[in-house]
Amino acid sequence: FFSHQLLKSSPQSIKMKSVNISLPRRFVALLFVFAGFSEGWVQRTRITQLNSAKVISYGRKSTELAASGHGENACFLPLKQLDNDYYAPRILQVAGAYPGLTYEEFSAVTSEPPAEQGQWQYDFSDPDGPQVGTVALEGTNTIAACEDPVVIIAEHTSLNVILPPELEEVADLLVVVDRATSTFAERKFLVYSSPGAAELTIGAFAEKSDVPDGITILGQVVLVQIPWLPCMQKTKTGFMEEDEYF
Hints:
Elements: H1 2-7, H2 11-65, E1 79-81, H3 103-108, E2 122-123, E3 134-135, H4 141-145, E4 149-155, E5 172-178, E6 190-193, E7 201-203, E8 216-226
């Protein structure tokens, strides 16, 4: 019936009717295409957001499992780099008191050669004592402010301290810890013990919520001294670009 009425119409009416019939179909088709594209874009966006949320949650979980090292999560050790012309304090033994000093007392003590420039020396004269050894540190406000300081000899790789790639061996760093400061502080490196672990850990946490349960904080790191090594640049020039040792 519809075809029969269309054949009886004039060419102009046929053109108008065909336009009236085809235009809605194109419009509807475009709506379907746009709706499908929008739905696909929304689905893809939601998938991307979900994936991003998973990555963020995994990242948070990983940071909570272990403490941060130097340069991680905006945590930085209080580093001090020695110059190549630095003379370390020399450890000397006391021979006795005068008057009353005898020849035997004066001759009984020994002396060690000075440390090389830019480095320091240890004293292991009493390896069987409660302390492993002693080391002399330059007098500064930081050292003077410590109430109960001790020194830990740490390998630079264990603290994530980056030294020149030309360095083939592990370098010893002096880690000064104040045992009187046994409280948490954001991004401060702590010495702590974990339940069931025989060895202590040195690490920092960006937030208190990142601190594992059950740990015992034994002190805070106040200074990490780095020696000058032959593979490093020499005396400071005053230009920051040239004075970067590592």
